[in-house]
Automatic annotation (TrEMBL):
Protein name stated in the entry: GNAT family N-acetyltransferase
Organism of provenance: Streptosporangium jomthongense
Keywords for the protein's UniProt record, in alphabetical order: Acyltransferase, Transferase
Family matches, as Pfam families: Acetyltransf_3 (PF13302)
Organism taxonomic ancestry: Bacteria, Bacillati, Actinomycetota, Actinomycetes, Streptosporangiales
PROSITE patterns linked to this entry: GNAT (PS51186)
PANTHER family: N-ACETYLTRANSFERASE DOMAIN-CONTAINING PROTEIN, RIBOSOMAL-PROTEIN-SERINE ACETYLTRANSFERASE
Length: 175
């Protein structure tokens, strides 16, 4: 599998079983993504409601050819009364981690969001202990901005987060 062949695409019904793994398999969600058991049926309900797209955000499958690798998502974060940015996230299956696919997928999502929305900023937050994701974000063109103390709760403890961003002017869009 080549990193250059990684692509993003909309979710189809056949993908819902793969997405459901992130709700019921701790190994699929990974150390930093596992937040406890959750309703696997939520994936199907959300897909039936809007195909994972609305004005507040979205979700795309990360693929390499026919192989499903995981997903990327984005959600609207209000930054002022009349402006917002996108906050992105990623979840890759264990067999896809550590191979550069996440970096490529996040870069593709940034390019997509800047090409199809008017935002000037895309941000991401990861746990301070998630060094692999921090490296992936930096390789994808994000800049580390700082530490968010006591930002998220996982596995019985409050965790610090690290916030990253990339601005529209920092990205050369294709075409």
């Amino acid at each position: 599998m080549s990193v250059d062949q990684v692509a993003l695409r909309p979710i189809v019904e056949e993908d819902l079983e793969t997405l459901g793994r992130f709700s019921v398999e701790p190994e699929a969600a990974g150390l930093f993504g596992w937040l406890g058991w959750s309703d696997p049926g939520r994936w199907r309900r959300k897909w039936a409601k809007n195909g994972f797209f609305d004005a507040e955000g979205g979700l795309l499958l990360v693929v390499n050819g026919a192989e499903r690798l995981g997903f990327v998502s984005w959600r609207r974060i209000l930054t002022a009364q009349t402006s917002h940015c996108w906050n992105l996230g990623i979840a890759l299956l264990p067999e896809a981690r550590g191979r550069g696919f996440g970096t490529r997928a996040q870069r593709l999502l940034v390019e997509y969001l800047f090409a199809h929305t008017q935002v000037v900023r895309v941000e991401a937050v990861t746990e301070d202990a998630n060094l692999a994701e921090q490296r992936a974000l930096e390789k994808a063109g994000f800049t580390r901005e700082g530490v968010l103390r006591g930002y998220s709760f996982r596995n019985g403890h409050w965790r610090d987060g690290v916030i990253y961003s990339v601005l529209r002017e920092e990205v050369d869009l294709p075409g």
